[in-house]
Specification:
The complex is a heterodimer. By secondary structure, chain A is of the alpha/beta class. Chain A is built from 17 helices and 14 strands. The longest helix of chain A is centred in the last third of the chain and has 23 residues. Chain B is 43% helix and 12% strand. Chain B contains 21 helices and 14 strands. In chain B, the strands form 3 sheets. In chain B, strands 1-12-11-10-13-14 form a 6-stranded mixed beta sheet, sandwiched between helices. Chain B has a 4-stranded parallel beta sheet with strand order 3-2-4-5, with helices on both faces. In chain B, strands 7-6-8-9 form a 4-stranded parallel beta sheet, sandwiched between helices. In chain B, helix 4 links the parallel strand 2 and strand 3. In chain B, helix 6 runs parallel beside helix 8 and helix 9 runs parallel beside helix 12. Chain B is globular and about 85 Å long. Classes of the chains: A alpha/beta, B alpha/beta.
Chain lengths: 457, 545
């Protein structure tokens, strides 16, 4: 048993977190910043954070992840990190020459109270920012929220780059939230199919799923350009996908730039994708092309074809709130039973929405925001499931409890595919369904007695 | 282009260094110049390198922090200690199962390796202090698991807000009575790299655990293996060889280790040091307090393994052990030599670069030598000058302002338990036979003339080096891996072994030969250009014309 010390009996813990279902803010800000073209993320703190965040993202994407750090020493930690940051700005522009530096903070610089805006002003005053280059920043204290919070904060800083010209650009802003590069590509494909012009931000496609060609580009072709980010204030509207990841940025553009927004769920599964396409159609005033309708029909077809293997199967889920809400709804729409749902990210709304989505389920549903995977495992011990969906850390529970696992979410450290094949949209729904059915049917095959080992499913 | 098979790229080290420095602002160039050393291999004197100095902000270093060196490296691999990280969630999360320290839960089945424990500090803990929460978390861990020991690790904000983790730990230890609780002030900003964390871990392990168990340990030829973390099962392979030779391992610091191993470490008669950087402090303290001498060993490379086994046998000066060691080497080597001969036809003359933590850049040179491969550039993230130049430079090292606050603990001979392991005459005769105690020669003397040694390599220099010197393989860590591979150069991780291993010992050598052969001779590096990119000048024509 890999997790042999996890008891079935659940005791309340008020201080000890075990096997977290979240990580800390800056990695989210780093991931978001990689979705800006020509951007070098910068971690204002001691260098360990930056090394860890780069490593975690690299292990997930199997791609280079560049980011710089202020490399605080003990002296800077006591007297402030301004000198470190100013030196870093000099060195970054001289050696790496990005278009833009996107700075985030850590618990260190937040605790000592470094003022990034003031440091930026000083850098400007001292002529440290070359002409045409940009610096943006956001505050990402690790002791608040989770990696999702950090992602949202950086996306909001990107929105704050908006410089409205007063002339509409005829485009729709789309904030995809923390999804994979392949998902961002898929969202762009759907929006393009619908004939809608858009600015998608952040956009890590072409950044974190690049080719091998014998050439290394620290700043690959992909990413939302600074020009596009400045133009978001001229857009006709904003579609934000995922309340936790994208809501704040969209509302900021709405309130401050008068770009009307709608905050939707992330388009995972049938219903959330339906609402996304429908909203797209209404906002842009276009009709949905036959091709999209066809993809939808294929997904419905597959659900009906394979329904017998899904019906009333119990599922445990762990991950980030926006993704989990859409996934839970998808599972319900498949007549599956999501019974244990945990996110490490705080937020009461999460529990409320899960309860709403699952209110007609034939089983009691355990849901916890600010929970951890130790609790999830205990729930599973008390009420076993047929399927587990979550990141790579779930493999320990999956093996101990002998439960089929679908890897989905962040981080996935031991498989590939997530960077290349989307799970959003109807196409992504087909892939999710294929993955779910794959592990369920593999299990049937593994366990079937010889006389009922079937050739045809 | 990397696709073309080139041999013996002409490069001039002086020019390479100049090119590396050319892009830097002058202040940075001056500093980096001291950290990039051309190995002149002078007869009596090794040129000096600047190391263990602060990282240049914004340079994109490979380095991590003190917490990583303490919790991640030294204390992480011990299976029956509950390692509780006091801080926001990230530090605990990122050190959760990401280093491949393998463990065998053993007969008692106690193994917390697969768990991540954290106090998950919130903003209220930053404002009002986290001591209460820490005490409560320790209590909850005790109630849930009843471990024999709980270790607490500080992260960046802990030092700033002034949580007194040592007092909390002490109080809880006294309260429990049957669980040793202690703390590590390994805030990430201390020192300039992981290295400070090693030192802090060494001090606390020595203060709080070593010597706690005075029970006699059975077995002959008792040694501690210091600085071996069982990445990819390296320690298991070394353990296998020790067993075969009749050598008793009392404690390993700290791969596949237990609390009791640390507690009994003073019962060994020799300390064999693998990773000098991370554990030389414990080696020195065990000698001072208990009289156990230490020697540097290296189990990376089959020849190095044989040499190290002989070194251990020579120390115990027992013919039975000497004979057994020779028999084991004779038994193990044929398979190794067969594999070596086989791959050498494909690896001979190829070149490697290695930039790894604080010891592997040196150790793995042995393996590359065995394959007929030449190491043309190497360096450490966080080695000190003694790791580069040898321990004879230690008296001349000056502790700079950034590392001054790392505690140096003073250890004295234990009044009752200090016991010299050899008579002065025995030491003398060993030394006359060429035996060197308490010494490590460092990386530099082993590097060829004209090679380039670089401390705290950064992303820009890594790329530039590869571009200028075109190695056949580049060895470093996960952060470097994919950018190097994009350049068309195979990259081997020598921290995680890319899920491979073991690479230590005899079986490990065979694994490594095969892995490097696979990498440097993979077909994939020939696929980078599509057919239409190889002959762009031809205009397309219909295939059937």
């Amino acid at each position: 048993m890999l997790l042999r010390h996890t008891p079935k009996e659940i005791t309340e813990r008020s201080a000890l977190a075990i096997n977290p279902a979240k990580t800390c803010q800056p990695i989210g800000a780093m991931y978001a910043a990689l979705g800006i073209h020509g951007c070098l993320p910068h971690s204002h703190g001691s260098q360990g954070c930056c090394a860890y965040h780069r490593s975690a993202l690299t292990r997930h994407y199997k791609e280079p992840v560049s980011a710089a750090t202020s490399s605080f020493t003990e002296g800077a930690s006591v007297f402030g990190g301004q000198a470190n940051m100013l030196q870093a700005i000099d060195n970054i522009f001289a050696v790496y020459d990005p278009e833009i530096i996107a700075i985030h903070t850590t618990c260190l610089s937040e605790t000592i109270g470094d003022d990034l805006k003031q440091i930026k002003k000083k850098a400007e005053a001292e002529g440290k920012i070359p002409k045409g280059k940009e610096i943006i920043s956001c505050s990402t204290p690790s002791y608040v929220g989770s990696h999702v919070t950090g992602f949202s904060s950086m996306v909001t800083s990107m929105a704050k780059m908006a410089e409205p010209t007063g002339k509409k650009n005829g485009k729709l802003n789309i904030i995809p939230g923390w999804v994979e590069p392949a998902d961002m590509e898929e969202i762009k494909r759907l929006v393009g199919l619908a004939g809608v012009k858009s600015i998608l931000f952040p956009d890590t496609s072409g950044v974190l799923n690049g080719p091998l060609s014998g050439e290394y580009k620290m700043f690959p072709e992909g990413g939302t350009t600074v020009k596009e980010l400045k133009s978001t204030g001229d857009s006709i509207g904003t579609l934000a996908l995922g309340e936790w990841c994208s809501g704040e940025a969209a509302r900021w553009l709405d309130a401050k730039m008068k770009v009307p927004c709608r905050v939707l769920d992330m388009p995972f599964g049938l219903s959330a994708t339906d609402r996304f396409i429908d909203a797209l159609r209404m906002i842009a005033g276009v009709s949905v092309p036959e091709e999209i309708a066809l993809e939808r029909g294929q997904l419905v077809d597959m659900i009906s074809d394979m329904h017998q293997y899904l019906y009333h199967k119990k599922v445990a889920l762990v991950g980030d709130p926006d993704q989990l809400l859409a996934m839970t709804e998808f599972l319900v729409s498949l007549d599956m039973c999501p019974i244990h749902i945990v996110t490490g990210t705080p937020g009461k709304k999460f529990e409320e929405r899960i309860k709403e989505i699952t209110k007609d389920m034939p089983f009691a549903v355990n849901v916890r925001a600010k929970g951890d995977m130790f609790l999830l495992h205990q729930w599973i011990k008390n009420e076993p499931v047929d399927l587990l969906i979550g990141n790579t850390y779930c493999k320990y529970i999956a093996r101990d409890e002998d439960v089929p696992l679908v890897r989905w979410g962040f981080p996935i450290l031991d498989r590939q595919g997530h960077q290349y094949f989307p799970t959003v949209g109807y196409k992504g729904g087909l892939r999710l369904l294929e993955k779910i059915l794959g592990v369920l049917l593999d299990r049937l095959d593994r366990d079937a007695p010889e006389h009922s080992f079937e050739l045809v499913m | 282009m990397a696709t073309t098979k080139k041999k013996l790229v002409q490069w001039d080290p002086v020019r390479v260094k100049a090119e590396l420095l050319a892009k830097y602002p002058s202040k940075v160039a001056r500093k980096r110049a001291k950290q990039i050393m051309l190995n002149e291999a002078l007869a009596n004197e090794t040129p000096e390198i600047s190391a263990n100095v602060r990282t240049t902000p914004g340079i994109i270093t490979m380095r991590g922090c003190t917490y990583a060196g303490c919790k991640g490296v030294i204390m992480g691999p011990t299976r029956d200690i509950v390692n509780l990280v006091h801080g926001p969630i990230g530090c605990g999360f990122y050190a959760w199962l990401t280093r491949r320290n393998q463990t065998n839960a053993g007969p008692d089945g106690e193994n917390y390796m697969n768990y991540c424990f954290s106090t998950d500090m919130q903003d209220s803990d930053i404002i009002f202090g986290g001591e209460k929460k820490l005490a409560q978390a320790i209590q909850e861990a005790y109630d849930l698991f009843h471990p024999r020991s709980i270790a607490v690790f500080a992260t960046c904000p802990v030092g700033l807000i002034g949580d007194d983790i040592h007092t909390v730990a002490k109080r809880m230890k006294e309260k429990f009575g049957d669980c040793n609780v202690y703390a590590f002030s390994c805030e990430g900003y201390k020192g300039v790299s992981q290295s400070a964390g090693h030192h802090i871990a060494n001090n606390q392990v020595f203060k709080h655990i070593v010597g706690e168990n005075d029970a006699e340990k059975p077995g002959k030829y008792k040694i501690n293996l210091l600085g071996e973390y069982n990445i990819g099962g390296d320690g298991f392979e070394i353990e296998r060889i020790f067993k075969k030779c009749g050598i008793t391992s009392i404690a390993t610091f700290s791969g596949n280790s237990t609390y009791d191993q640390f507690a009994s470490a003073h019962k060994a008669d020799l300390n064999a040091v693998m990773c000098h950087r991370s554990i030389n402090y414990v080696a020195d303290m065990l000698e001072t307090k208990f009289g156990i001498p230490w020697v540097k060993v290296n189990f990376i490379g089959a020849d190095a393994t044989a040499k190290s086994l002989r070194k251990i046998a020579q120390y115990f000066a027992d013919q039975e052990l000497v004979d057994l060691v020779e028999a084991v080497i004779a038994e193990e080597m044929p398979e190794v030599l067969a594999a070596r001969t086989e791959v050498r036809t494909r690896t001979e003359g190829k070149t490697a670069m290695m930039f790894v933590g604080g010891s592997r850049a040196h150790h793995y040179k042995e393996l590359f030598n065995e394959m007929g491969m030449k190491t043309i550039s190497a360096g450490y993230e966080f080695g000190h000058r003694d790791d580069y130049e040898g321990r004879q430079v230690i008296p001349t090292l000056e502790v700079d302002a950034d590392s001054r606050n790392i505690e140096e603990i003073h250890v004295e001979a234990d009044e009752t338990r200090y016991k010299p392991r050899k008579t002065p005459a025995e030491f003398k005769s060993l030394e006359e036979a060429g035996y060197t105690f308490k010494h490590y020669d460092g990386l530099v003397p082993d590097m060829d003339k004209g090679t380039i040694i670089i401390d705290d390599l950064n992303q820009y220099e890594a790329e530039k080096l590869v571009e200028l010197m075109k190695p056949d393989i580049f060895c470093a860590g996960i952060k470097e891996k994919y950018s190097i591979q994009k350049l068309g150069v195979p990259m081997k991780q020598l921290h995680s072994y890319d899920s491979g291993g073991p690479y230590a010992g005899f079986k490990g050598a065979v694994n490594f030969y095969q892995e490097i052969d696979r990498l440097v001779n993979s077909r994939v590096w020939s696929y980078m250009q599509a057919p239409w990119q190889k002959n762009p000048e031809l205009s397309a024509a219909y295939g059937w014309e």
